[in-house]
Design brief:
The protein contains two helices and nine strands; from the N terminus they run ββββαβββββα. With 162 residues, it is an alpha+beta fold. The protein has a domain of 107 residues: Immunoglobulin-like. The protein starts with a strand and ends in a 25-residue tail after the last helix.
Length: 162
Amino acid sequence: MANEIYHSADEARVLYALIWRKTDDKVYDRVAAANTFDTYTDADIATYNVELANQADSDYHSVDFPTGIAEGVYRIQIMQQDSDTTDTPHADNDVAIGQGEIYWDGAAEIDLSTITVDTGSIEAKIDTMDALIDQLVEGQGITHDVYPVVEEPEEEVILKEF
């Protein structure tokens, strides 16, 4: 864990995150059992908030992504608590000030820049598919090209100036 959820705001502000599962727009319930996502209701806002900590009297706030959440893609909504209700989140008064997505592998954030693709494996699968298609169309009088040929137009096109 490495403070995957973060936002900049005045150090006096109280920030919290709502974590939404992208597949069904359910919100993470931090009070319920691990990996519990609920249909959002204003009345339960105090069980959804994941509070961000202000770091060393700066304008930087952060918190670790919860460890009990399964792998997947999550939308993070950063909320700023209303200054009149800073003791608890208040759904009607708090304001959304940021958002983003986290790709989570179940233990850590996935760094998309480290994902590699084995093109040799993809090419081998294409060759296998091509061979299977050839077997299917054999004897049917059908020809099969992996890459269609684009023919040149038969007529010459002449542009005229007006």
